[in-house]
Amino acid sequence: MSRRTVLVTGGNRGIGLACARTFAEQGDRVAVTCRGEVPPEVLESGLLAVACDITDADQVEAAFARVEEELGAVEVLVSNAGITRDSLVLRMSDDDFTDVLEANLTGGFRVARRAVKGMMRARWGRIVFVSSIAGRIGQAGQANYAASKAGLVGLGRSFAKEFASRGVTVNVVAPGPIATDMLSALPEDQQDAYADAVPLGRLGRPEEIAAAVRFLASDEAGYITGAVLPVDGGLFMG
């Protein structure tokens, strides 16, 4: 496999950073977007860090321009950036709902639309959206997050149908409970409850999500498009 240019949005920590690292380890040229200060882990991994808030169209355009200038046209996009603003429905404000959709769903659309232009010209490309099991089964206190992640499935499959004839595959990975900083901030008994609900009896690791993303972006996965791949320890079997 030849070296490719890979862009991972929200690649400064957790699943995004694990994805970026796994591509870098196989020799790809990898850039990650960050909204805030670039953590040392990104710099130590030899990744190109690009400042970008994906809710801002101008910042998205500027980020792609920099990646194209320094690494070349984006051939693999991992749309991972997102936010949470958890609250029960009756306490959730309109802003809490729309802000999460803007970041997780509209932001994903925005970066994929920009990336696919170059992929069409090259007649080859890989787009992987990082969704969540919450988008498949729902989650109390996360109506906004679940809606945004469910929307990525329809978005990804629409992209898959529109651009299949140009050699671009588009797939979705749906992680279950993963041992990230966000989850580790929860009380230990709550983390244990999440693990107990998983048939495999444990939380997933970011590297396990990254392995699935890497496969879907590979040449070997060239006949897979429009798929939703659960990486959840068997939590969702439907």
TrEMBL record:
Keywords: Oxidoreductase. CDD domains: BKR_SDR_c. The keyword DNA-binding does not apply. Gene3D superfamilies: NAD(P)-binding Rossmann-like Domain. SMART domains: PKS_KR. InterPro entries: KR_dom (IPR057326), NAD(P)-bd_dom_sf (IPR036291), Sc_DH/Rdtase_CS (IPR020904), SDR_fam (IPR002347). The keyword Methyltransferase does not apply. Residues 4-181 form the Ketoreductase domain. One of its GO terms (biological process) is fatty acid elongation. One of its GO terms (molecular function) is oxidoreductase activity, acting on the CH-OH group of donors, NAD or NADP as acceptor. Belongs to the short-chain dehydrogenases/reductases (SDR) family. NCBIfam families: PRK12826.1-2. This is Ketoreductase domain-containing protein. It comes from marine metagenome. The lineage of its organism: unclassified sequences, metagenomes, ecological metagenomes.
